[in-house]
Design a protein that fits this description.
By secondary structure, the protein is mainly beta. It is built from one helix and 13 strands; from the N terminus they run αβββββββββββββ. The longest helix has 26 residues.
């Protein structure tokens, strides 16, 4: 006699459907994050320094915006994307103020007119410029006590009013009256100021 055995269909495993569901959920969440990032992204700020004659350093700040636009920030001596030949040679440039300080963060801290030689270190020359049109090129020419030129630092103004600075390190420099002349691209002196390093 033969024995008849019945066959019962097993329930199909549910994990493949769950895995596919979780995969779609993950893709959806990733899509929402990308959309949110594009709408709310903040620029990344990169700061670089360039040393000139081992004594002078200028600061440059670039904003890299996710849409691949490059923008130049205004508060510190930014570099320019345009060529200098595009700058207006007949611009009206006025120096509003020149401040010397030992510390700077967007604005100068504790302006100085006289400093002791052992405290000299890094000295900043912070300048506020009014010019029309922008961009414009100016320079800070640092002169030592004997009147010799220590540094000639090119700076670019990209906004109205323009705020920029340069600095030199004067740790082992001679005592006396130091001067900074602000010059336009043609070499005309727009303004000047001085400070004293005492013994």
């Amino acid at each position: 006699m033969s024995k008849i055995v019945g066959y019962t269909a097993k329930n199909a495993p549910k994990w493949p459907f769950m895995a596919i569901g979780f995969l779609f959920l993950a893709i959806f969440i990733f899509y929402l994050l990308v959309i949110s990032y594009k709408e709310n992204s903040k620029p990344v700020v990169l700061t670089t320094s360039t040393t000139v004659r081992k004594l002078v350093t200028t600061s440059t700040t670039l904003k890299l915006i996710p849409s691949t636009t490059i923008a130049i920030t205004a508060p510190v001596a930014p570099i320019t994307i345009q060529k200098v030949s595009l700058l207006n040679e007949k611009a009206e440039i006025k120096v509003r103020e020149i401040i010397f300080t030992r510390s700077i963060d967007q604005q100068p801290f504790e302006p100085i007119k006289k400093i002791k030689k052992e405290q000299a270190g890094r000295i900043y020359c912070y300048t506020t410029i009014d010019c029309s049109p922008v961009p414009q090129k100016i320079s800070h020419v640092w002169l030592g006590p004997s009147g010799t030129q220590v540094a000639d630092i090119p700076l670019y103004i990209h906004s109205q009013p323009g705020y920029t600075y340069s600095y030199v390190t004067l740790s082992d420099s001679p005592a006396g009256k130091w001067e900074v002349q602000v010059k336009d691209s043609a070499g005309n002196v727009l303004g000047k100021s001085d400070f004293v390093i005492s013994e």
